[in-house]
Specification:
By secondary structure, the protein is α+β, with helices and mostly antiparallel strands. It has twelve helices and 13 strands. Strands 3, 4, 5, 6, 7 and 8 form a six-stranded antiparallel beta sheet that branches. It has a three-stranded antiparallel beta sheet with strand order 9-11-12. Strands 1-2 form a two-stranded antiparallel ribbon. The longest helix is centred in the C-terminal third of the chain and has 28 residues, at about 315-340.
């Protein structure tokens, strides 16, 4: 029989002690049909979301990719395993010279994750202003396959260079911001499945992430994270429900944004969910804070590009830097915790941590008033 689908609220809550155990069991999930920021911040949602990232990657198990490809897509080809924190991800080289990506998982909660990812990418087909992978349907015409103990899907591979491997010129970052805004506009029109499943990167979980403070490496990092999260709880969280919410990518990092000959591409929709639209901008911008001589560390150009397509409301302008700092802090907290759970994979898990720590140190100089002023200055600027 196929894997059971999961949805957001635990019937059996994961205990606090289980957060530090790599052998955490898959929780039993009950069904809900609506998610607000308040419900995403509940104990049960947080435990369910944390449980997903407290388990070993599917890459540690036996690889059935070749047989699954043959059975569900009728194709054969070379297979190369790629790095992945959750599901098994392989690159498939097919005989005609093309390359595709196959994602599979033995976890029950992966059913909803893959339903979200495939329905989102299928819904983006034909959208303009950015590049996204295309879902390749199974031999039976489905977006994904499910069989006893495993599920998965296949997508096209975007050819290009990840943003973290290129020189981030002002013009490129401006174009990246515009492409991200176009992606958000398109996602707002897509009818996706499982947008309300438990995702630890959802803003609703952030009020509880300081439970992971014990895994931070030094007092200076801990102090910066503590201050950013305190600001989030006091200033951002009480107002976050008043901005525009929609389906978002929720992880436009420099590893997931690809420079291609057809424009900026976006990959890996696995953390996507129903969240504040401005969250995509905050996440992308938080990764680009690197130049200590600039108020926003160089993220100004990406913010300007985004705002040239989607105008930011007064409230979004006020909350943006707080969201950026909170996202940097969430990344630091979650990844130090996961590196503790899986030391053999620590280097991959922490690939964005140093950037987040440096960016957080730059943004720490801004109070609420000056942060708002710097964002206003950025959105009023033109193409560099």
């Amino acid at each position: 029989m196929p894997l059971r689908s999961t949805s957001p609220v635990l019937a059996q809550a994961v205990t606090r002690s289980q957060l530090s155990s790599p052998s955490i069991e898959t929780p039993v999930i009950a069904t809900v049909h609506h998610l607000s920021c308040a419900s995403a911040s509940t104990e049960t949602y947080f435990r369910a979301a944390a449980a997903v990232l407290a388990m070993h990657s599917d890459s540690s198990g036996p690889d059935m990719s070749a047989s699954l490809l043959k059975r569900h897509y009728g194709v054969t080809g070379s297979i190369a395993t790629l790095s992945s924190e959750v599901e098994r991800t392989v690159e498939v080289g097919i005989p005609d010279g093309g390359r595709c990506i196959l994602k599979t998982s033995t976890r029950p909660e992966a059913v909803d994750s893959f339903r979200f990812q495939t329905s989102a990418m299928a819904g983006l087909r034909g959208a303009a202003g950015f590049v996204a992978p295309a879902v390749l349907r199974t031999s039976s015409g489905a977006l994904m396959f499910e069989e006893e103990g495993i599920c998965g899907y296949m997508q096209t591979r975007i050819e290009g260079i990840p943003l973290h491997q290129v020189v981030p010129t002002p013009e490129l970052l401006f174009r990246t911001g515009r492409a991200l805004a176009r992606l958000d506009l398109a996602l707002a029109q897509v009818n996706v499945l499982a947008a309300h499943r438990p995702v630890l990167w959802h803003v609703g979980c952030w009020s509880r992430l300081m439970e992971l403070e014990q895994y931070l490496p030094s007092r200076s990092v801990a102090d910066s994270v503590r201050a950013a999260m305190a600001e989030y709880l006091e200033f951002v969280e009480p107002q976050i429900s008043n901005v525009v919410w929609q389906v978002t990518h929720n992880d436009p990092s420099p590893f997931n944004m690809i420079v291609t000959g057809q424009g900026l591409g976006f990959i890996d929709f696995g953390d996507g969910c129903w969240s504040p639209r401005i969250q995509d901008l905050a996440i992308a911008a938080s990764h680009l804070v690197s130049d200590s001589t600039l108020p926003l560390g160089g993220a100004e150009h990406l913010i300007a590009g985004y705002a040239s397509v989607i105008s930011l409301s007064e409230l979004e302008v006020r909350l943006l830097v707080g969201l950026m700092r909170a996202r940097q802090s969430a990344l630091i907290l979650v990844n130090y915790w996961r590196a503790h759970l899986f030391p053999a994979d620590a280097q991959y898990i922490k690939k964005n941590v140093a950037r987040a720590e440096h960016g957080l140190s730059i943004l720490a100089c801004l109070d609420v008033t000056s942060a708002e002023a710097t964002v206003l200055a950025a959105v009023s600027s033109s193409l560099p």
